[in-house]
Predict the structure of DUF1090 domain-containing protein.
Amino acid sequence: MMLNNVFTPVTLLTLLFLSTTAHASQLTGCAAKKQEINTQISYAKKYGNTQRLEGLEKALQEISENCTDESLKAERMEKIAEKEKKVTERKQDLIEAKESGNLKKIDKKERKLREAMNELQEAKNRLSL
């Protein structure tokens, strides 16, 4: 019986998170950002995290005053360009490592390239949000 009492709050929080995420995924642009912050505000209030709450409320105010879908898209496109530049740099680093023949260096540069490519993909995925 004690086990059920432990899992019930966890299960409820998980379901709440999933339903909020599903609802937020229907929203895009600034509306999605507002919804995400409102969800975090609810959690901060629930758990009495006043510092987090203040920061989130300030962020929500900033979004309400300054966010447009066009500016958000431009910001995300800029992030994509930065990530593409990073991928290009990492590719060049890998080429140089391969020329050196140092296997440890090659492994490290391959890992860095994969990380940069993952970051680029994440930035591209955010574009559609």
